[in-house]
Task: structure prediction
Amino acid sequence: MAIQMEVIKQAQAVFYYLLQHHELLEEQAPDLHKAYMEQDEVQEIVKSQAEIANCHIEAFSGVVYLIPKEENYFLGYSKAQLKKELCKSNPTDKDYYLAQFAILVLLLEFYDGQGSSSKTRDFIRVGELQNSIAAKLEEGAAKFSEDEQSQQGMAFAAMKQIYDSLRSDEKGRRQKTTKEGFVHNILRFLEDQGLIDYIEQDEMIKTTRKLDNFMDWNLLNKNNFYRVQRILGVKQDEQN
Result:
């Protein structure tokens, strides 16, 4: 019984640490990391606690992550909360979808879902990302009819209209009503989540180990990645 109680205490300590930090690295908490990785009973209890908290526990490349499920608005974000974080004042659903699309384009610039790692580049400049967003919107609006866009779940024409309505600011000011501000706000949000390193002075974006691990786990095992590539106009010869 004493051993069982010690296991429970270790599992509780691991789960509480994950609630605080959302990830457990060996170099930051070696005793907790060892308990989770080497003791099946601890791991089972932690995963059971996560299930009750509407979360997943996943370990990628030796790092343990707490991942809120889609409808977990306590540890994650609701649509309304994301709209407030990512969009300008009084945002519409179309503004929200454009922000999500911009994030998707950013991911596709870094990852292709192939090989032992899905990552294909080390960094991207902000201006290149802005151009890529505009290009993907243009291609999608030209390639698909409105009915096809509706069927694919990608309202390219509507998102393009909103993106085009954002003015460009040659002075580099980052108001949310400008293209620069729109992208800047998204990048700051992603950096706050520990997913990218946004080096503002160099206008450079790099991915973090956390995002690389998530993308390898998801992209290399998800069939819909190629569906997304097809929708965004990535040709088959570009994937090989």
